[in-house]
Write a structure and sequence with these properties.
The protein is an alpha/beta fold. The protein folds into 3 domains: 88 residues, Orthogonal Bundle (Arc Repressor Mutant, subunit A), CATH 1.10.10; 124 residues, Response regulator (Rossmann fold), CATH 3.40.50.2300; 160 residues, 3-Layer(aba) Sandwich (Rossmann fold). It is built from 12 helices and 17 strands. The protein has a 7-stranded mixed β-sheet with strand order 11-10-12-13-14-16-17. A 6-stranded parallel β-sheet has the order 6-5-7-8-9-15, with helices on one face. A two-stranded antiparallel ribbon has the order 1-2. It is elongated, with a radius of gyration of 25 Å. The two termini are 33 Å apart.
Length: 392
């Protein structure tokens, strides 16, 4: 196991059994902590105050000289300190303008994207950043505006299901730090094109299925939305693995896929959705005709109203509301799951993802260091009683 100990001495690193990539991430975390400490110290100092020499900071913070130098370089780039050869490093007297972070969304009216924008805006403002939401008519115009007009910004956070080709183009044309807080719109997960922070969909589905089994349900359906993206596949995998862990055989007939409410009315997509709807209705008819129809339902929609309307349309009266469990975010429960009936959800706080995404923006990596994909968030059960959600 690799370990890092921040003590009154030096950084202690044992990398005998860990890859260099893991060590790189661990060293970055130390550098982040050192920078945060120095920023807090600077906030309480007057302009022109000299900071302790690097060798003193090495002893005080228990960090290497290289780590101290990296943190100082970032503070200089943000114009918080300046160095004079032969004299030292001083708190700057220049006006401190807040750096801007651009939030670029793949879709501005999707509930998930709106939730991301709201939480990220809150976190960024708490940390002293300005928030810029590009307002151009097209994504291409937005991107040119960012790349050409805001080169001194702190970075870009991408929200939503960008395609891999779009991400490739963005990462190749922008010199600003890029962080993506969603999975790429593709069927199979491939190496990330930019730093990515996501939740563990498979683990959420596993825990949601386990919760329903512990409530006494043996036949559990999974509601999908006609998607073949990696996030949908990950949820189905977690659902199936949880059933197997309880010695229950997953059945393909219990995976229900229906069109989304915003499906187009005409064209090839409309024809495909009509076929999907017909298949779903035939599947539900088979449930009703059998003696072992599902008694509980797991779904990953962010809107309770969408699920209610879907169940009312396809299988009214099939499921007790208490046996319909959502996989979602804590923040979305407060706005999109606001019914009065008793209910349960498996969720995590998007704020955990947002905070890590903002941390990653501060990193200045060499070009030969590959992007990372991190899984963040602590999964928990939430229950609604009397119209109010609480952690279970």
């Amino acid at each position: 196991m690799a370990f890092i100990c921040m003590t009154g001495g030096m950084e202690m690193v044992n990398s005998s059994t860990e890859s260099s990539g893991v060590m790189h991430v661990e060293n970055r975390l130390i550098s982040d902590r050192v920078e945060h400490h120095l920023r807090k110290r600077i906030e309480n100092l007057r302009a022109g105050t000299m900071l302790p020499p690097q060798e003193v900071l090495v002893r005080e913070l228990g960090a290497s000289r290289h780590t101290i130098r990296e943190a100082m370089d970032r503070l200089k780039r943000d114009q918080l300190v300046e160095s004079t050869r032969g004299r030292g490093t001083f708190v700057t007297s220049r006006p401190r303008t807040k750096p801007a972070v651009h939030l670029v969304s793949s879709c501005m009216d999707h509930p998930y994207n709106l939730m991301c924008i709201g939480v990220l805006t809150e976190v960024l403002r708490e940390r002293g950043y300005l928030v810029h939401l590009p307002g151009s008519r097209t994504s291409g115009d937005e991107w040119r505006d960012i790349v050409c007009g805001h080169e001194q910004s702190a970075g870009v956070i991408l929200i939503g299901d960008f395609g891999r080709e779009d991400l490739q183009r963005l990462s190749e044309t922008c010199r600003l730090p890029l962080v993506h807080v969603s999975d790429t719109d593709e069927q199979f997960r491939r190496p990330p094109l930019c730093d990515t922070v996501i939740n563990d969909n498979a683990a959420m589905a596993f825990q949601g299925t386990d919760y329903l089994i512990r409530q006494g349900h043996q036949r559990i359906a999974f509601l999908g939305w006609g998607s073949e993206g990696i996030w949908d596949r990950e949820v189905r995998r977690g659902y199936q693995e949880s059933l197997l862990a309880h010695s229950l055989e997953p059945r393909e007939d219990w995976v229900l896929r229906v069109p989304v409410a915003t499906a187009p009315d005409t064209g090839p997509a409309a024809d495909k959705n009509a076929q999907l709807e017909a298949k779903s209705r035939a599947q539900i008819d088979r449930w009703r005709a059998s003696a072992d129809a599902p008694t509980a339902l797991l779904h990953n929609s962010g809107s309770e109203l969408q699920v209610r309307d879907t169940l009312a349309k396809y299988c009214p009266g099939t499921f007790d509301p208490r046996a319909v469990v959502a996989l979602t975010y804590w923040e979305m429960l407060q706005t999109n799951c606001t019914g009065e009936s008793d209910a349960a959800a498996v969720c995590l706080k998007f704020r955990d993802i947002a905070e890590r995404a903002v941390d990653l923006l501060k990193l200045r990596r060499d070009s030969d260091v590959p992007p990372t994909r991190e899984i963040q968030g602590r999964i928990f059960i939430a229950q609604r009683r009397g119209g109010r959600w609480q952690r279970g």
